[in-house]
Amino acid sequence: MSRKIKVLQMQNRYNVNASDLAEQIIQGLPTDNFEVTTLFLRGRPGEGEPESRATRSLYLGFSQSDLKGVRLRALWRLYRLIRAERFDVVIAHRFKPMNMLMLLNRALRIPLCIGVQHGIGDFDRPYRRWESRQLLKDNWRIVGVSRAVRDYLIGCDAGFDATNTVQINNAIDIDRAETLQHPKAYARELLGLSQEPFVFGAIGRLVPVKGHVHLIEAFAQVRARYPQAQLAIIGEGRMRQELEALVARLGLADAVFLLGAREDALQYVRAFDAFVMPSLSEGLPLALLEGMSGHLPVIGSDIPSLKPILEDCGGRLFPSGRPDLLAAIMMNLLAMTKQERDEEGARSYAYLRRAHDIEDFRRHYLKLVEEGVGNERRFS
Predict the structure, then answer these.
(1) What strand order describes the sheet that includes 256-258?
(2) Residue 379 CB burial class (10 angstroms; 0-12, 13-18, ≥19)
(3) For the residues of 150-208, what is the DSSP string, one character each?
């Protein structure tokens, strides 16, 4: 009987939750054939926090400074670990773990290296592109988590092309999401929202890149024409005070609700009548998919990572950073009948089922690993 294929999955910092896509990759690798180790460069779970479902988890406990510059101590520790364990596959998520793996692979010649890129812009710097071209070997496969990310990678002149770079769309467990979602009335009760108003909803950290300032400014225009409308934002972050001040300055304290962080925020999406994603930059935000899972009409900015998804699902686009045009779209949605909005939400849900189902996600990663190991195991 052949031994199990040994897989190491590297992440920059500890972050394990029910919708974590690194955990979904593990679920796609059958335990009869694969032994998966999860490694976190920074952080570890606190008391009561979840651990990875991998066979084992490693927490290296590096600080931010350990992972800057030449990172010799971190690289040496990783080198010894990978050499001793003789992993067949190493999957590195995001730029820093992927870059470290590229450097180590020169000496280790790991049978299969997979780099998962979640966003756009990591290879904008000329030095990063040059380094990637020097380090990228034929045992590498690169994953872009959306069409926009894949296209960025292939077009950035960092050595990525159609032979080594694939698109595997980020996904959510739609069946689980729908099981968790509370009925509209109960979801509103849990969030402290009134039952009657039309509620625009958003989910995301309260940080500048999420564009909440523009969303609140747009809603101020909507509220002037539709005084019963409300806006609810689930998320927490360093911009809370700034956003609270903006809400007060615009006289919206009775209509805009900053609801804070909520575990498994997708369980509340049916409290909303429409979902808004005003981001200035994103990879592929899972929150947008969670909004679709609630059968909601979706509105989003025209940034590269959102535009193709919103076009394909029949959603609504506005120019990023333009609250006046976002307000017009929101008012257009309010002017529609409930049946028209329900039909729009049904179209977004149907697209979600076609393009972002978790079972397809798991199958694609399993195929990528199986094919890659079959082609590259000769290097071990």
Answers:
(1) 256-258, 230-234, 199-203, 274-277, 298-301, 316-318
(2) middle
(3) HHHHHHTTSS--TTTEEE----B-HHHHHHHPPPHHHHHHHHT--SSS-EEEEES-SSG
Helix and strand numbers, DSSP H then E, in the chain? 14, 13
**Do 10 and 97 touch, CB atoms closer than 8 A?**
yes
Residue 113 CB partners (closer than 8 Å, separation 6+):
89, 90, 92, 101, 102, 105, 137, 139, 140, 141
What residue spans in the chain does CATH classification 3.40.50.2000 cover?
A: 5-171+358-379, 174-355
Ranges assigned E (strand) in 259-322:
274-277, 298-301, 316-318
Q: What is the pTM of this model?
A: 0.82
How far is the C-alpha of 368 from the C-alpha of 290, rounded, in Å? 26
Residue range 219-277, pLDDT digits in tens: 999 999 999 999 999 999 999 999 999 999 999 999 999 999 998 898 999 999 999 99
Reported as type and span, the H/E element at residue 220 is helix 212-225
Contact criterion met (CB below 8 Å) for 261 and 279: no
Correct CATH for 5-171+358-379 of 3.30.360.10, 3.40.50.2000, 3.30.70.3300, 3.40.190.10: 3.40.50.2000
359-373 b/e (C-beta count within 10 Å ≥ 16 → b): ebbbebbbebbbebb
Are the CB atoms for 35 and 55 separated by under 8 Å?
Answer: yes
The H or E element that residue 112 is part of is: strand 112-117
CATH number for the domain running over 174-355: 3.40.50.2000
pLDDT tens-digit map of 292-311: 999 999 999 999 888 889 99
Distances 283 to 84, 359, 371 between C-alpha atoms, Å: 34, 21, 26
The rounded distance, in Å, linking the Cα atoms of 375 and 112 is 9
Contact 205, 237 (CB under 8 A): yes
Tell me which DSSP letter residue 357 carries. B
Helix (H, G, I), strand (E, B) or coil at 247: helix
Q: Report CA dihedral (137, 125, 280, 102) to the nearest 10 degrees.
A: 30
Sheet containing strand 165-167, strands side by side: 56-59, 34-42, 5-13, 89-93, 112-117, 140-144, 165-167
